[in-house]
Amino acid sequence: QVQLVESGGGLVQAGGSLTLSCTGYGIIFRNNHMGWYRQAPGKQREWVAAISIISSTSFADSVKGRFTISRDNAKNTLYLHMNNLKPEDTAVYYCNTNPAYFKWGQGTQVTVSS
Description:
The structure is a single chain. This protein is mainly beta. The protein is 0% helix and 50% strand. The chain is built from no helices and ten strands. The chain has a six-stranded mixed beta sheet, with no helix packed on it. The mean pLDDT is 97.
């Protein structure tokens, strides 16, 4: 059974930075296209960033130039490095395959204050 565990969220002021982590159990990240997603209050979950098996990356227009995604194969951990955070980045952030296939984890809350 696959389990995805996100961490690293918190409260940050606009313009600040955070790095989120996602550890996978029962899944080998380097063998899957992986992604980060987020869900803001009252909105649908949306795709944020992805990293392919060959480590090519892609980003939603709303975060392009501010977020980067990386993967540590030895730790089987996925990261989302978020810079120049904006209040509209406030959401619960999740990782999953890209496209999403497995049960969602609990997510990690990111709150950006203005």
